[in-house]
Sequence to fold (334 residues):
Amino acid sequence: MKDVYILSIETSCDETSIAIVKNGSEVVALTILTQMDTHANFGGVVPEIASRMHTENITMVLEETLNKAHMKVSDCDAIAVTYSPGLLGSLLVGVEFAKVLSYVYDLPLIKVNHLIGHIYANKIDDKLKFPSLALVISGGHTELIKMKDDYKFELLGETQDDAIGEAFDKVARVIGLKYPGGPNIEKLAREGENTYKLPKMANDDTYNFSYSGLKSSVINLVNNERQRGNEINKADLACSFQTAAVEELTRKLEKALKETKIKNVIIAGGVSANKYLRGEIQKVCDKYKAKLNLPEFIYCTDNAAMIGAAAYPLYLKKEFADLDLNASSTSSIC
Ligand code: KG4
Ligand code: ZN
Fold:
């Protein structure tokens, strides 16, 4: 079969990214332009600034990707784009850009769900094995999904309130760390110990998660200690929070491994870059003799290569989008 090159675009949050992916698993070229430093000045992503910066940079990111690949847009077989979920204004920049390329170069357009993109990051340089349990853990999502085959998803459980990444970011802010909080909490936690007693999450019989209780207890603890004039040991608090947050994931993953007897585990989304989390999930997988698939760090956080990987099965099925494709801030994958 002829090789398939997909030009893929990701602009759902604060990374402008374009990739060329061969046959759904080989990254020919990838460019990621992050706006992180700009948003760090505001303590979080400012949607209006994000979409304006995508508009300013997207042509340059395309040019750089094509140069790296020594290819032209017309050498590609399809244009793929993240259309949902994410920040609406940011998504729209990518979607409109993709539509223009699809029209001008007469190439099929493929719409990709961002979370499915995170899952398919596991397919880059590797193979997805089915059935699989997928933990999607990002700034906006915390979901445990059973994947029976390509694009066959069953939602087992999800967060009932905050996403795990959101909790990392808020706790980071409260203890004075810069945005994005996740990597900074991880770094600080390495210098600390799990000394703060934080409440355990409700041990219910579902696969659902909850992070708002843990987040609030850290915020209350910091406020109470400050009012009493006591010093907080930030490294110990970061370590205690990270331990509790990861325990919530491993507890539910263990339940799923025990009950479903599935032997393949995938982790996906920005929080899966956390090394402590990777280690703890590996321990649970080892206990149940399950194989854990870990995406390379660069493919954990937002990037267009994962969108190209997720677009490939749709290309093979000729599931193409029309030029009236719209972006949508919310959507689920199951
Ligand atoms: O997948 P992603 O890049 O964007 C979304 O789709 O949300 O995930 C971003 C989230 C942020 O909340 C960030 O703090 C978190 O992933 N994150 C981490 C780490 N790296 C990124 N959380 C914990 N530890 C990390 N090393
Ligand atoms: Zn993401």
Observations:
- The pocket of KG4 (ligand 1) is lined by residues 13, 138-140, 165, 168-169, 180-183, 186, 269-271, 273-274, 301-302 (CB under 6 Å).
- The two ends are 31 Å apart (CA to CA).
- The mean pLDDT is 95.
- The first strand starts at residue 5 and ends at 10.
